[in-house]
Amino acid sequence: MATHSSAHRPSRAESEVVDLVSRLIRFDTSNTGDPATTRGERECAEWVASLLEEVGYETVYVESGAPGRGNVFARLAGSDPSRGALLLHGHLDVVPAEPADWSVHPFSGAVENGYVWGRGAVDMKDMVGMMIAVARYFKAENIVPPRDLVFAFLADEEAGGKYGSQWLVDHRPDLFDGVTEAVGEVGGFSLTVPRPDGSERRLYMVETAEKGMGWLRLTATGVAGHGSFLHEDNAVTVLSQAVARLGSHTFPLVVNDSVAEFLAVVGEETGLDLDPSSPDLDGTLAKLGSIARIVGATLRDTANPTMLDAGYKANVIPRTAHAMVDCRILPGRLAEFERTVDELIGPNVTREWVTSLESYETTFDGDLVDAMNAAILAHDPIGRTVPYMLSAGTDAKAFARLGIRCFGFAPLQLPPELDFAALFHGVDERVPVDALHFGTRVMEHFLMHA
Fold first, then answer.
1. Which residue spans within 158-232 are E strands per DSSP?
2. Nearest C-alpha neighbor of 222 from the set 316, 298, 118, 353
3. What is the pLDDT of residues 148-204, one digit of tens each?
4. Strand bridging mode 383-390 / 200-210
5. Distance between CA 335 and CA 332 in Å, rounded?
6. pLDDT digits (tens, 9 = 90+) for 337-351
7. Which is nearest to 62 in space by CA: 172, 162, 159?
8. What is residue 130's DSSP assignment?
9. Are 149 and 54 in contact (CB under 8 A)?
């Protein structure tokens, strides 16, 4: 496949990707975490299916464990059926947004000032739009990739995939027959770093690992009574003290392979001392700008209290008090993490995992990684792919249970000044139009050489 210059003629995929992303954002697919109030996934999935069927795909529509939780699958045959298939997965749901907080309506899909605006622009209707655009282009033009491609458009990722990828892996593993590798979100975006000679390098961060995700419910039980009496066994007090200890605790610094390789490459390119044993590693990371928030969160386990629930009247001591804690745990650290939590919350507070999804890590090597790097270099001569760990979680956690090797690679060339990390689940979420064009070109190249 020919590489593109600045004067290239855009493919059909590149020509329609911005409109596709804008139209996807206009579907309000807000996932509240409650199936009763989550909406829009079925309508969006049916629209995606119609776009694929329009160019000749046979699609499979599946509702995953609850009415309206729509998922769409389509498969494109490759030239070598003996090779394992490659899964490209994107989720259709988004986190809720409050319109009053935004510069534009979060479900407008506005295309203004060089950006496509709206909830899901980077998480992850940008990649979904690129997937649809490339899938339609390949089918319409009879372009045959070297291996089978499975395109999956999924529900419920923003609530852990119980009514999405996790359900599909448990109940419809046939949809993933022959798949050996997968590519999904939160990878492939650029980080521009200065080099010692005054030039710049764009590092494209490929996700090779992600922390485990667990939502922990803490419960304290005491003696109920009148608010005017003396109380030595107040559940609210006991819980509050436990939550404060846990929320203010700093877990030890642990550098795993993906993070160590990322730090080594960034140190090599910038000349910064990013030695994991450095006493000021956090301070040095801060010199990388906004991306330091993502990288910094992969150096330690975290336990962030997010919800408190106790009482029903101002003058009544309740018998029980509850808290929810968002826990993100590094690979291989679960047992030690639980031991530390138990020590911090004390014997009078119980804990239970409401949601528990395992960590994941793979190595940064092999033909698929080589194809990612070649696709980036074909369209950005100062680009270089580098592995990193995601502090959050994706649907890769489900697919890894099928033995599928997973990566995050949704290529975007970003302006150096853009605070990309702040856009995930943030106000005024947006993606550069030029980045969508770039990403589509890279994806075309990648899929023709993967």
1. 179-184, 189-194, 200-210, 212-221, 225-226
2. 316
3. 999 999 999 999 999 999 999 999 999 999 999 999 999 999 999 999 999 999 999
4. parallel
5. 8
6. 999 999 999 999 999
7. 172
8. H
9. no
* C-alpha–C-alpha distance, residues 91 and 44, integer Å: 11
Spell out a b/e string for 96-118, using b for 16 or more CB atoms within 10 Å of the CB, else e: ebeeeebeeebbbbbbeeebbbb
Radius of gyration of the chain (CA): 23
Confidence of residue 277 (pLDDT cuts 50, 70, 90): confident
pLDDT one-digit tens code per residue, 113-140: 999 999 999 999 999 999 999 999 999 9
CB 212, CB 359: distance < 8 Å? yes
Alpha carbons 199 and 306: distance in angstroms, whole number: 43
Note whether 441 and 379 are within 8 A (CB).
Answer: yes
With H, G, I as helix, E, B as strand and everything else as coil, classify residue 305: strand
Beta carbons within 10 angstroms of residue 450's beta carbon: 24
CB 349 within 8 A of CB 218: yes
Measured in degrees and rounded to the nearest 5, phi and psi for residue 194 equal -80, 145
Supply 304's token pair: 């962030």
Please report, in angstroms and rounded to a whole number, the separation of the first and last CA atoms in the chain.
12
The 8-class DSSP code of residue 6 comes to: T
Of 21, 143, 1, which Cα lies nearest the Cα of 434? 21
Mean pLDDT across the stretch 26-47? 96
- Encode pLDDT of 43-101 as tens digits: 999 999 999 999 999 999 999 999 999 999 999 999 999 999 999 999 999 999 999 99
The two beta strands, 149-154 and 70-76, are antiparallel
The pair of structure tokens assigned to 137 is: 């282009």
Q: Determine the Cα–Cα distance for residues 115 and 437; give it in Å rounded to an integer.
A: 12
Q: Are 210 and 435 in contact (CB under 8 A)?
A: no
Strand pairing class (430-432; 179-184): unpaired
Is 119 within 8 Å of 127 (Cβ atoms)?
Answer: no
CA dihedral (178, 180, 183, 186) in degrees, to 10, reads 130
Report the range of poorest mean pLDDT among 228-237, 245-254, 427-436: 228-237
Mean pLDDT score of the chain: 94
Is the confidence at residue 5, as pLDDT, over 50? Answer: no
Q: Give dist(CA 396, CA 394) in Å, integer.
A: 5
Q: Residue 93: which of 160, 37, 158, 172 has the closest Cα?
A: 158
C-alpha distances (whole Å) from 114 to each of 217, 427, 432 are 43, 17, 6
